[in-house]
Design a protein that fits this description.
Helices cover about 30% and strands about 25% of the residues. By secondary structure, the chain is an alpha/beta fold.
Amino acid sequence: MRVAGPISGNNGPGLRELQNASNNLVPGSFINLLTFAANSINAMAEWEFTLDQLPDVAGAFRQQFVVYPVIAFHGEMGAGKTTFIHAICKAMRVNTKLSSPTFSIINEYSYDNGTVYHIDLYRLNNDAEAIRAGVEECIYSGNTCLVEWPERAPGIFPAATLHVYLEATDGHTRRMRVADK
C-alpha cells in the first residue's frame, strides 16, 4: 500500500512522511495510517491499495470520514466505485442485500445506526432529472449517501460533500484520492 498527501499546500505531513508511515505499518494498523493521513488533508490525500486490502480500507475510510453524510465517488467505468461502496456498506454492517442501483438509481439499505442510500446517477443527464428521481431528498435527508457519477448532476450536492476519486491502476490495484472538492 502506498500513501501520499497533502499534494498541495504546506500544512501537515508531506509525501515522504506519509510514505515512511506506510512502510512501517504492522498488520491491522491501516486505520492508524488512514487517520494520520486524513487528519492532514488540506487539499487532497491519496492512497493506493490492492483489492485484497479493500475490506480494511473501506472500514478505515468509513470510520475516518463518518462526519461526511454525503460522499461523491468519481471514476471511470470499472474503477471500483460500486465495489468500494459495497465494502463501505459491509463495514457499516448493512443488514439488507446489497445490489447495484444502476437501474433503480437509489438503493436504500438499513444498518444499526439508520439508513444509507447508495445512489447511481449514471443514467441521468442533469440536476432536474436527479431531483425528479428523488436524489435531492436523499442527499438532504441527513442519512449517509454514497453517490456514484456525481458529475451527472453536480448542482444538487451540498458544499460539505466529500469527493472520492477512484482509479484502477491495474487489475488488482486502485488509487483513491480524497478531497473536499
